[in-house]
Design a protein that fits this description.
Blueprint lengths: L3 E4 L5 E3 L2 E5 L6 E6 L13 E6 L2 E8 L11 H6 L1
Antiparallel strand pairs: 1-5, 2-3, 3-4, 5-6
The structure holds zinc ion.
The site of zinc ion has 6 residues, from loops.
Length: about 80
């Protein structure tokens, strides 16, 4: 497995002109963008298993609750190791 990690994004929060989104499991910051900037990207779908590589999302794998087995790069595994 290459250097990927799968998070479960929480709903994004807007504070002043920033949109911030963290992982609901490990707390890692997944998005922090200036809403007045040139490159406004959409938030990651919250409650889904989203795989990241080099801090960018590469795959959406479906709702967390529907998984009986989380992927081997699930972030909580990394946190608890
Ligand atoms: Zn995480």
């Amino acid at each position: 497995m290459d250097d990927t990690v799968t998070h479960v994004p929480s709903p994004p929060l807007v504070y002043k002109q920033r949109m911030i989104q963290r992982c609901a499991v490990c707390g890692d910051k997944l998005l922090d963008i200036n809403l007045n900037g040139d490159e406004v990207q959409p938030a990651h779908p919250d409650g889904e298993l989203v795989r990241f590589k080099n801090r960018k999302s590469v795959k959406i794998m479906g709702e967390y609750e529907r998984f009986n087995n989380v992927p081997p790069d699930f972030c909580i595994v990394l946190v608890e190791n």
